[in-house]
Amino acid sequence: MGVLRVDELRKSYGDVRAVDGMSFDVERGELFGFLGPNGAGKTTTIRSLTGQIVPDEGTIDVLGTDPTTAPIETRTRVGILPEQATPPSFLTPREYLEFVGDVRDLDAVVVADGIDRWAERLGFESKLETLHTDLSRGQQQKVMIAQAFLHEPELVLIDEPLANLDPLVQEQVKQFLTSYAAADNAVFVSTHNIDVAADICTRVGIVADGKIVAERSVADETSDDLLETFLDHVD
Ligand code: ATP
Predict the structure, then answer these.
(1) What pTM was computed for the model?
(2) ipTM confidence
């Protein structure tokens, strides 16, 4: 069953057509890569999916919700990890994740269990009571991943998950995203990194000029194949 469906989405800023006929579906079990160069319309699409901006035209279905008319409902059901987001410096991971649980109106016991489980799974359990100012960028990114996954969402939207992470943390995050999608969830990853898309995604939509211009199942494509397709479609 489709968990994310976008049909003929359009959004302009003045004369700039940021999104121009964007259509795609994401199913359970998929790690879908939204691969495109700077300015292709990826961020504008993600902001439409999370209800931060209202598109000019088109329809969006996110886990049966419409972010255009019910953004709060959409945001409480999906997991969202924006690009370059960092946790508040004046809180510890535990305090921040408790706050996120409150905002999502989750049961306190579920939140407490979730914090311990995700900290252990992502390997920051020894840092739960340390202020974020004293954590490395990689540790902060793990906390941001934990906030996106705290309520075990069936769909997670992630913008550039591996930016500024060292190779070891990149590998850990890649493995984690792969296993989460494989457990009958859907993970949507926006990136301009072809190697990342070829490495972790099950299917890739290549984005240019505000729409998907090609789609590839990654199972039998190498990053060279994907690069060739990318260069065929992107100026
Ligand atoms: P990047 O990878 O650089 O983040 P992107 O694929 O996410 O790029 P968008 O940020 O969606 O692309 O931008 C698409 C187009 O819309 C670009 O030409 C951009 O300059 C323009 N744009 C985006 N936001 C605005 C805005 N608030 N006002 C005017 N133009 C905008």
Answers:
(1) 0.91
(2) 0.95
Residue 192 Cβ inside 6 Å of ligand 1? The answer reads yes
**Which residue has a Cα nearest atom 25 of ligand 1?**
13
Q: Is the CB of 38 under 6 A from ligand 1?
A: yes
As a whole number of angstroms, the distance between CA 150 and CA 45 comes to: 24
Cα 81 → chain centroid: 5
Q: How many angstroms separate the CA atoms of 212 and 206, rounded?
A: 5
CA gap 151, 9 in Å, rounded: 28
Report whether residue 18 contacts ligand 1, using a CB cutoff of 6 Å: yes
Ligand 1 centroid vs 18 CA: distance in angstroms?
Answer: 6
Smallest Cα–Cα separation from 152: which of 194, 209, 110, 213?
110
Span 37-67, pLDDT tens digits: 989 999 999 999 999 999 999 999 999 999 9
CA 23 from chain centre, in angstroms, equals 17
Torsion angle of C-alpha atoms 168, 172, 173, 175, degrees rounded to 10: 130
